Amino acid sequence: MAGEAQAVREVARRVAAHRQREGAGFIVRRPFPTIGLSYVDPFLLLDEMGPIDYGPGEAVGAPDHPHRGFETVTYVLEGEMEHEDSAGHRGATGPGAVQWMTAGAGVVHSEMPSRRIREAGGRLHGFQVWVNLPARLKLVQPRYQAIVASRVPEARQGGASVRVIAGEALGARGAVQTQLPIDFHDWTLEAGADLTLPSPADRQAVVYVFSGAVGLGAGDSELHEGEMAILGPGDAVRLRGPVRGAAGRALLLAGAPLREPVARFGPFVMNTEAELRQAMVDYQSGRMGEIARTARLD
After folding, report:
1. pTM of the entire structure?
2. With contact defined as beta carbons under 8 Å apart, do 209 and 27 qualify?
3. Residues 22 and 78 both lie in one domain
């Protein structure tokens, strides 16, 4: 009710990201999944791609591969990624833009650094997040949302600023239409910034710091670059900038846990082993289609 004190979420667990090779050989910094932390319901994966500077001919990505049963989110900070899928979607995701793909019943997908970066080299930095789908939506029709940078709303309060990909913060609402309520925010916190945000008590929240340092909670907890915090119960998140020095930057992700069985194998995430086997059969038999390449992406 209005006027009641907010219960600030404290750091329940601190996780250090590890480096791992993915796709055709690119390196990601990954806080989960890892040994001892398979997923943070409803989020299945969080990868930071780069930052990396490629020379001519060095850039690699994730060529044709299938997905079923969840959503993939690509958020680009620097550089450009090209996307194609078997449902006929294709395009480029540049700095500040988002590609939110609901794989649902199944899709074959390709995501690569742009032809310009592959041929001439360049810098690439961004994120990929996997969001689980509940059993009732596992086989929903695939959907693709491309949100250009100019459609990602921004807001500022004091020394804190945010880009809202999904959900709401500081009065700004993200353009992505999510299957379930999801918060996906990119926060920049200057030295001395201090703000408390409402956070629905039924959602699981994590904060991943990818630049500088960010303070969390009512105490003096501080995360540094490459660290993620799983936040405990409450109905508010308190974010603070560093005491001094360069601004900290972090992703805030929150969503209601599905609390359903998770059966996963590579690019398939279902509820049972039988559903996984069916997904593999459907992919191998061509029921998920293939990417039709009639022209090269520019």
Report:
1. 0.94
2. no
3. yes
